[in-house]
Amino acid sequence: MISFKNVNKWYGELHVLNKVDLEVEKGEVVVVCGPSGSGKSTLIRCINRLEPIQKGELFVDGMAVHDKKINMTKIRADIGFIFQSFNLYPHMTALENTTIAPLKVKKMKREEAEKIGRKMLTRVGLADRMDHYPTQLSGGQQQRVAIARGLTMKPKIMLFDEPTSALDPEMIHEVLDVMRDLAKEGMTMMAVTHEMGFAREVASRVIFMDEGTIIEVAPPNDFFTNPQTDRGKTFLQSILTH
Amino acid sequence: MLETFNFRVILEYMPLYGQCFLATLWLSALSLLGAIIVGIIACAMRLSKSRALSTIAGIYIESIRSTPLLVQLYFFYFGLPSMGVMLPEWVTGVIALTLNSGAYYAEIIRSGIQGIHFGQIEAGIASGLSYFQRMRYIILPQALGATIRPMLGQAIILVKDSSLLSLISIVELTRAGQLLTSERFMPAEGFLTTAAFYLVLYYMLKAFSGWAEKRLIFREAH
Amino acid sequence: MWSFYFHELMRSMPFFLKGVYMTVAVAGLSLIFGTIIGFIAGILRAGRNKPARFIVGAWVDLIRGTPFLVQVFIIFFILPGIGIELEAFPAAVIALTNLTASFICEIVAGGIIAVPQGQREAATAAGLSYYQQLRFIVLPQAMRTILPPLVGQYVLLVKDSSVVSAIGVVDITRVGWLTVQRVPEGLMVFGLVGLLYFAICYPLINLSGFLERRMTVASTKL
């Protein structure tokens, strides 16, 4: 489904992605973790070309994302992207946030878009908040609206960039619950997160990155209980002792 | 002086003042419309990726901001005929007002757009919205809410600036005062009445500004 | 023909330089007096005395609600009516000072109000009087907010000074107006006029922007 082949990216002199090779199968749930500055956010932001790559090849569902000439609109319409800071549109209600892209990008009819939007908002547990504005919602609720917004496009892939990092602790589980359900239903997911409980439950693989390179790839239980590399060990110690 | 304030003369000149009040309104409204359009275009040029367009818009905006309106007005009033272009005075006046306020509107709109959180635009990109769709549904609606107050502020400035049109013989509110002064030697009656009319316009616009802000703020639930 | 007019224009350069001197004189004097009066008015506007706040506020509103040209005419034509004979230059300085002071008043008041309440509470707890607080605690901090728009106001002052040409003050604009009667090349003459104003205003605008950026950095360091 997602295929990184020798992907390299630089920010000026800084080599943020270094010879990355990665294959994500359909229906897989992959968790990416690592210290800050490791390139993990950049990795998933390249998938829908929020960031371009300079070298290598990136394929999403068979389409060449690295090709400058390709039409990203179709590809992006099939990918749901969840940001750390939610990025909901403040001047639209929750429902309007979910329907704007289906209406304008997928050119759906209004009744159909609203039907799906309502269904997705109900699915994330916000049936009674559809006409609320983002400022009237808590952080956890806003992030769930963001997820509903992604789902209303009926995507093939869902990408999460530290979805719970900006939330107060008591709101983290409501977002993780939604993500867990999605994973169990077979959605192809890639998530940058340190939530190990979530990773253990639903991830098929954990990717550990540092300084732009993939250091370790292992099933979550293996990685969390017995990391093979020194850097992996150091990283786990740092997140466990806090 | 107050005892000799001649209200009768003012009443006599009321029809003229009425006409001139409408003239000021009409000239201002026309220029305002033009200025907003020019402002949007100039702002789009300034923010575009093309260096040529951005530079042209930049030169336009900086020239207007660094020179007085009166000089711009005289520039067109004396300059256009020397190029062979003969226009009625009021057209020249409207052109000068439009181009002047247009530059300021371009800056106001630019700061409104640049004040929007980049994350929103990213969310728009990520869901596949095109540049124009992002502009239309995400950026412009929010920029509008943020800039309503400075835009109406500039509108008030424009109405006051229209007084300069009296200096190129256009018959509007200030000219009415000048006429009362030159015809009847009563500058007090003439210009104080003029001032009163402008104050009416000023408070009307301020009230509208307050009402518009309330409506927009309610809509955004901020 | 064009080169003949250009030659004539160059011969008028001394005249233009006199105009520059006049503009600088009018603007400079108004700047000094306007700043002093503006600061005093601003302190009153942000102060504890309610009647003072109201009166100053009403004065500011009157000035903001009417065009500067009308204010110039009122001062020049009407003051003689109550016994104050005025020539063009003093009338111009009075009008421009009045205008500048009212805008600076709002800038200063805004800067004072922006200083966090906690600062005053700390100073009160330490036993400082109201005026001591103002002088040592509030105003120094307010200056950070006040300085950039203050410089911006000086730019406006130079531009607004062009309006006094309407009552005969021989500033850059008036020199242009007189010259274009002899040298009917409006574009050239007022192009030059514009350039002269640009030379004065453009650096000031950049100074204002520079100050704004520096002030923001300084406050975040805190």
List the helices and strands and how they pair.
The complex is a heterotrimer of chains A (242), B (222) and C (222).
Chain A: E1 2-11, E2 14-24, E3 29-33, H1 40-47, E4 55-60, E5 63-64, H2 72-77, E6 79-82, H3 94-104, H4 110-123, H5 139-151, E7 157-161, H6 169-184, E8 188-192, H7 196-202, E9 205-210, E10 213-218, H8 220-225, H9 230-240
Parallel strand pairs in A: 3-8, 3-9, 6-7, 7-8
Antiparallel strand pairs in A: 1-2, 1-4, 4-5, 9-10
Helix pairs in contact in A: 3-4, 3-5, 4-5, 5-6
Chain B: H1 7-47, H2 51-65, H3 69-82, H4 89-114, H5 118-126, H6 131-161, H7 173-184, H8 187-220
Chain C: H1 2-11, H2 13-45, H3 50-65, H4 68-78, H5 88-114, H6 117-125, H7 130-160, H8 172-182, H9 186-221
Walkthrough of the structure:
Chain A is built from 9 helices and 10 strands. By secondary structure, chain A is of the alpha/beta class. In chain A, strands 6-7-8-3-9-10 form a 6-stranded mixed sheet, sandwiched between helices. Chain A starts with a strand and ends with a helix. The longest helix of chain B has 41 residues, at 7-47. Helices cover 83% and strands 0% of the residues of chain C. The longest helix of chain C has 36 residues, at 186-221. Chain C is elongated and about 75 Å long. The model of chain C has no long low-confidence stretch (mean pLDDT 88). Classes of the chains: A alpha/beta (242), B mainly alpha (222), C mainly alpha (222). Chains B and C meet through helix 2, helix 3, helix 7 and helix 8 of B and helix 3, helix 4, helix 7, helix 8 and helix 9 of C.
What can be said about this structure in brief?
By secondary structure, chain A is α/β, with parallel strands linked by helices.
Overall shape of chain C:
elongated
Please give the radius of gyration of chain C in angstroms: 21 Å
Helical segment count of chain A: 9
User: How far apart are the termini of chain C?
Assistant: 63 Å
How would a textbook summarize the main sheet of chain C? none
Low-confidence stretches of chain A: none
Q: Percent of residues of chain A in beta strands? A: 15-25%
Instruction: Enumerate the strands of the largest sheet of chain A in spatial order, edge to edge or round the barrel.
Output: 6-7-8-3-9-10
Low-confidence stretches of chain C are none
Helix content bin of chain C: over 70%
Strand percentage of chain C, roughly?
A: under 5%
Question: How is the biggest beta sheet of chain A arranged?
Answer: 6 strands, mixed
Overall body shape of chain A: globular
Structural class of chain C: mainly alpha
The largest chain-to-chain contact, stated as pair and per-chain residue counts, equals: B-C, 41 and 43 residues
Distance between the termini of chain A: 36 Å
The helix-strand sequence of chain A is EEEHEEHEHHHEHEHEEHH
Average pLDDT reading of chain A = 90
Helix-and-strand structural type of chain A: alpha/beta
Assembly type of the chains comes to: heterotrimer
